[in-house]
C-alpha cells in the first residue's frame, strides 16, 4: 500500500486517492496534474501507455500509470483491485475517457454507434459500478465527463451526443442511489464545450488556428483549455463540494445559454 504522507499537506485534496481514466492526455492529463498538485495520490489509466507513463513520471511519486481499456469489464475489475491493493481505498473517480466520431443520423453506421457507446457510456457504467464497490464504506466523489452535446442538439455528432446524454442520466441515478443508501458518495457530471485538446483540434478546417478562438485571446470566445475543466474536477473532488450531488455543471463559456 502506498503511504499517503508523500502528498502535499496543504492541498485541497490532501491524502485522497484518485483514479483518472483517459488520463494520458487532454482533460484527463490536466486533471491528473492538478489533483496531484493539490495533494492526491493519482492513478492514471489509459490505452496510450507511452503518454501515460510519461505523464506519471512528470508528476512524480504521487502518480502512477496503469494500462486500461475502459470498455472492458474484466479490466475494470482488475484496475479497481489494483487500487485496493496499492492504496487501500478510492476517494475520487474521474470517468473521463472518451472518443469522438462525427456523423449525423443519416451518416452514422451501427458499428460507429456501438463503438462510441462502448467507450463513452459503457465505461462510465462500469466505472461507477466497480468504483462504488470500493468507495461505499469510506465515501468519495465520482466525476463523470459528459458534454454540452448531451444537453443541446448536435446534428453532426449523433452518437457522441447520445453517449454523453447517457452519462448524464446514469449519473443522476447513481447520485440518488448513493444518497438513499447513505454511501456518502457524491456523483456529478461536467459538461464542457469547445475544449481545445488533441481530439478536438482535428475537427477544425484547414487554415483555422483554434488558439485564436480560445478564452485566452478573448474571454468572450467559446473555447477553453483542459486546465479550465480540470479546475472544476478539483472543486467537485474536494470537500468544498460536499453538498453538491447530482449536479450537471456546464463549463462552456456561456455557450448553452446563447439564444442566437
UniProtKB/TrEMBL annotation:
Query: What Gene3D superfamilies is this protein classified in?
Result: NAD(P)-binding Rossmann-like Domain (3.40.50.720)
Q: Name one Pfam family in it.
A: adh_short_C2
Q: Which InterPro entries match?
A: KR_dom, NAD(P)-bd_dom_sf, Sc_DH/Rdtase_CS, SDR_fam
Give the Ketoreductase domain ranges.
16-199
Domain of life, per the record?
Bacteria
What keywords does the record list, in alphabetical order? Answer: Lipid metabolism, NAD, Oxidoreductase, Steroid metabolism
Q: Which family does it belong to?
A: Belongs to the short-chain dehydrogenases/reductases (SDR) family.
Q: What name does UniProt use for this protein?
A: SDR family oxidoreductase
Amino acid at each position: 500500500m502506498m503511504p499517503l504522507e508523500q502528498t502535499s499537506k496543504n492541498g485541497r485534496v490532501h491524502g485522497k486517492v484518485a483514479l483518472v481514466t483517459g488520463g494520458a492526455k487532454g482533460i484527463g492529463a490536466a486533471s491528473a496534474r492538478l489533483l496531484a498538485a493539490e495533494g492526491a495520490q493519482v492513478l492514471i489509466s489509459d490505452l496510450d501507455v507511452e503518454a501515460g507513463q510519461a505523464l506519471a513520471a512528470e508528476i512524480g511519486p504521487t502518480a502512477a500509470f496503469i494500462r486500461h481499456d475502459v470498455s472492458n469489464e474484466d479490466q475494470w475489475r482488475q484496475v479497481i483491485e489494483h487500487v485496493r491493493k496499492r492504496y487501500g481505498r478510492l476517494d475520487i473517480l474521474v470517468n473521463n475517457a472518451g472518443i469522438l466520431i462525427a456523423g449525423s443520423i443519416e451518416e452514422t453506421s451501427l458499428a460507429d454507434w456501438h463503438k462510441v457507446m462502448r467507450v463513452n457510456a459503457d465505461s462510465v457504467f462500469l466505472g461507477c459500478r466497480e468504483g462504488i464497490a470500493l468507495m461505499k464504506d469510506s465515501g468519495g466523489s465520482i466525476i463523470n465527463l459528459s458534454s454540452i452535446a448531451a444537453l443541446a442538439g448536435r446534428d453532426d455528432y449523433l452518437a457522441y451526443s447520445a453517449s454523453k446524454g447517457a452519462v448524464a442520466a446514469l449519473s443522476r441515478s447513481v447520485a440518488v442511489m448513493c444518497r438513499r443508501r447513505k454511501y456518502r458518495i457524491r456523483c456529478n457530471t461536467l459538461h464542457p464545450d469547445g475544449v481545445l485538446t488533441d481530439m478536438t483540434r482535428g475537427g477544425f478546417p484547414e487554415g483555422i488556428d483554434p488558439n485564436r478562438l480560445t478564452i485566452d485571446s478573448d474571454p468572450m470566445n467559446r473555447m477553453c483549455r483542459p486546465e479550465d475543466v480540470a479546475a472544476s474536477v478539483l472543486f467537485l473532488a474536494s470537500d468544498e463540494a460536499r453538498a453538491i450531488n447530482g449536479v450537471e455543471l456546464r463549463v462552456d463559456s456561456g455557450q448553452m445559454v446563447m439564444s442566437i
